[in-house]
Amino acid sequence: KSRPKKHYFPQILLLNIELEIKNEEKDGEAKLKSMKNYKKFIDAEWSIIYEKLDRISETKVKAVFSTQAIGDLATQYFAERSVICGGRISSDDITRISKGTGARFVSSIANVSKFVTGKCGILEEKPIGRERFIFILGCSNKSITIMLRGSSIKLLEETKRCLNDGIMVVRRVLKNQSVVAGAGAIEMKIASKLRKYMKAITGKNQIILKKFAQALEIIPKTICENGGLDSITILSNLRSIHESSDCWEGINVEKGTIFNAFDNFIWEPVLIKINAIQAATEAACLILSIDSCFSFINEKE
């Protein structure tokens, strides 16, 4: 509680070193001839940890984070010198801190120096709810941490999944900036193109294309059902519009009408749409192949 809560432009040190005096897990035995030797034996253990702490203090850092334990002695030592410390930090968090601040990860006390420290704009400790967090702001390398809070673990996991999906979509858009209209417009456009192409071929392939086009229309149909709209009327209007013109008409769920989805900024990345259609097609082909195997076995029996 006595340690400072905020530092401006601090030096940060990242360690993989234990800074506490631990009791031995196994029973040990030492034979001493006098009490003076006993005192030397005890002082040696304390001198080792104080040597580590003094070496860290010489670097003039204001924050020390370690993947291993930082005991009460080290915590009090750092608090007296206005140093914020944190122990048993996960390797993932240490890696993020290293990337954000430019600090190097140190596994030996001999390598501790000013050249391995990192920097940030503000280092602050403050409570959120019942927990206390250390915020590292103004990093030299741009990095962002998103904190999620919720009433249950299930809600947090679902929120995390949705947030991750959104971030990955934005990441793909930045890599490949080709987009198509959403709101069921792209599915209706592809279905319309398939119906036009279907008229130019004959045989079983025509039936396959017809069923594929109908499968694509499940997406706009589901959008209508989720919005409480009349799917039959809206889908028939969309088919008529897409067959007569090359447009991006989609479903306006709020008003229950048809509108230009592309002009209203309802976009979907091309890569994600291609991957979704390919995955669905492969899944359907796999199911059909399994079904044919069962039919073959039944006929043989």
Short description:
49% of the residues lie in helices and 16% in strands. The protein is an alpha/beta fold and 301 residues long.
Shape verdict: elongated
User: What average pLDDT do the residues reach?
Assistant: 84
Largest sheet: 5 strands, mixed
* Discrete helix count: 9
Percentage of residues in helical conformation = 40-55%
Structural class comes to alpha/beta
DSSP, total strands:
12
Radius of gyration: 32 Å
Distance between the termini: 79 Å
The H-and-E topology, N to C, reads as: EEHEHEHEEEEHEHHHHEEEH
Residue fraction in strands = 15-25%
Task: Flag low-confidence runs.
Answer: none
Index terms:
alpha/beta, 301 residues, 9 helices, five-stranded mixed β-sheet, three-stranded antiparallel β-sheet
Topology (elements, then pairings):
Elements lengths: L5 E3 L2 E5 L19 H23 L5 E4 L5 H9 L3 E3 L4 H11 L3 E2 L11 E2 L2 E7 L2 E7 L15 H23 L3 E3 L3 H14 L5 H13 L1 H9 L4 H14 L4 E4 L4 E4 L6 E3 H31 L1
Parallel strand pairs: 2-3, 2-5, 3-4
Antiparallel strand pairs: 1-7, 2-6, 7-8, 9-12, 10-11
Helix pairs in contact: 5-6, 5-8, 7-8
Structure notes:
The protein is of the alpha/beta class and 301 residues long. It is built from nine helices and twelve strands. Strands 2, 3, 4, 5 and 6 form a five-stranded mixed β-sheet that branches. Helix 5 packs antiparallel against helix 6, helix 5 (185-198) packs across helix 8 (231-244) and helix 7 (218-226) crosses helix 8 (231-244). The radius of gyration is 32 Å and the shape is elongated. The mean pLDDT is 84.
